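FW: tagging you since you asked about this chain on Friday. Here's the raw sequence from the shared folder, copied in full. Didn't touch anything.
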Amino acid sequence: MAFIGLMGLLVGFAGIIVSVVCLIAGVALRSRNPQGAGETLVWGGHVAVIVTFLALTFCCGLLVYCFLTGDTSIEYVVGAQSKQTGILGTLYRISGLWEGREGSLLFWAWLISLFASVMSLRNMKRTEKLDSVALVVIQLVLAGFVGILLFSEDNCPFVAMAESYFDADGNLTGAAALWGMNTLLEHWAMAIHPPALFIGYSGLTVPFAYAVATLVIGDSSDAWVRRSQRYTMVAWWMLGIGIGLGSVWAYVVLGWGGYWGWDAVENASLLPWLVGVALIHSLTIYRQRGAFKRWSIMCACITFAFVITGTFISRSGLIESVHAFEGDPVSLALFGSLIVLSLLAGIVGLALRWKRFAPKSAADEAVDSLVSREAAYYFNNVLMLVFAILVCYLTVASALPSWMPFGGTSVSTGTFNAVARPLGVFYLAVLAVCPLLGWTVTQRSAFLAKAKVPAICALVLFVVLVVYSFTYLFPSYDAIIDGGGSAGMGLAAEGPGWYYKGLTIVGFLVASILFFNTLFLIGRTCSAYAKAHGTNPVASFFKMIGGNASRIGGYTAHLGMAVILIGLICSSMYVTEETGYIAYDEESDTAEEFTIQDFTLKYTGNEIFEGDSGNDIYYVVEFDVYRNGEYIGHVAPSMQLVESTQQTKSNAAVISFAEEDLFVVYKGVNNAGDYSLDVRVNPQISLVWVGFGMLMLGAAIAALGRRSRKQKADEAQPVSLPNKED
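HL: got it, structure written out here
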């Protein structure tokens, strides 16, 4: 099996080499004789791209087959094999493909080849120079991935198991019998989370490839934007889904009661997502107004560089993380080189083509007024880039020299929050106002006409949120501070009370304005469409999804971000936590009550049982939950012990209400047999999930919705290269 897999990789690598040679030679020959051998070579290059995809598909399929059948001939399969049974067990065994460093690299390479194949199939008939050069770029990136799989044994997923690991009957012995998937990864969200991220990472290779290609051929039109914009939206959407699924997993599996902890690997996925926001808005301006040309190209390169930076963080071994891959020097060299080369491609390319990509007029790039839509887009780009750079720097700070700021130290969660919270609120404030502004300059009368009614509605919501703050959030904050301990000291370290509460009020104001401004924009857009086409506004919303998906999708996403902001403020800044032991009497099987806020947990029993796999033992403690004396539900948090590896996993119990979650974690017993509990009340956390769903729905509408006939016609237009005189 290992030999067959290696042959598949070899065929895939050969296909990459053939495709690059054929495409480069074909493009060169076609520039001299459009009807000659160059056309055949370009077509052959496209075929080689498909061959590479088929070879890598075979390699992935081979590993999945080994996981599902329990084949033990490949070392990677043995190390990543799940021992769970049932439907979820099957899902976990399939997810073994991307569980470890070697398999995830193969899966990522396969996805890149999938995007390349889609590009090839879409453009095989027209075989234009822009598309061919973009395919060369993406195939060169793929060559790095497949090359490291093929020529680095530490990264190769097809290393055969040594005979010393087997007994005379062919059964695994010794340490190898204990190998398998980390029990923390055996969760439905974690099985789907990595492939969603990898689809996002792979998809963001496409705008990078087209940006470099348009520099190579010197085409300053929006052709590369038209070719790559949908890929960019799909990639960003999938990256967001991956981040959301990771947050769900962290919330219910890691047992610390949160969904985001500024862990290095969490930040690795956030970096390209943040810069992707800037890229999406830049491509929109490039296409609509022909502005931000140089910046859009550089932004595509920076976004890809942050994709690789995230991978570098999680695979280099420089940064410790609870779910980072084991580092190796080859990955360090490969991904470090890709970061440098992707940035140099943009910098050097723009330096050589600086005049070619100049705006048609100075007015196209100039920001004449800070109160204009151009200025808002400009700040949008700057804020997202600064945000990403700061998060990246703080993430890698522990690996930096001690003479640099934060060098050699692990940056605390509070430091990340101190950076992210004000920047995030300011960014959403810009987002809230941007659609109300005019191009070039904003007329005061027009702005007030658009903003008046939404502002009144926003004021009502803001007052409600302020009342909620003073009656619930602020008393909760004061109680934690007054209680002292690690929770109180940690909260006090995030700034003085006036700043903390003031940021809350400002955040609620921004969320209120963003929500109603966006809601009224959707209403105005649908009403205008209904008036023009003789239909009702509700029907117009769905019709516009079928013809103007990007606008409706964008507004829906902005609406979701307003909801997320409210949820984030409440559920991350005002969490009430109580930890401690409750005395347990084994003889009478009774335990003390546990109280947090107005909730009381009353012990009802415990249970120890063996899981279906025969390798897991579950320790369960059960409680009835009362609120102000009234029964509201039952919780049964547990600890899972994997006998073969002695790994443990906390399975939290959550009771969700419209306004908050009660989160209960069982953390074992002390020497006296008392139960250790970590219980939290997370206010308004449901708004985070609802808002995130709206954000992803909006992104899906923009990425996958039908385009207007004009947009389709634009994308079908051939590339018109500039004259030599230009």
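FW: The longest strand covers residues 599-610.
HL: agreed, and The first helix runs from residue 2 to 32.
FW: great, closing this out.
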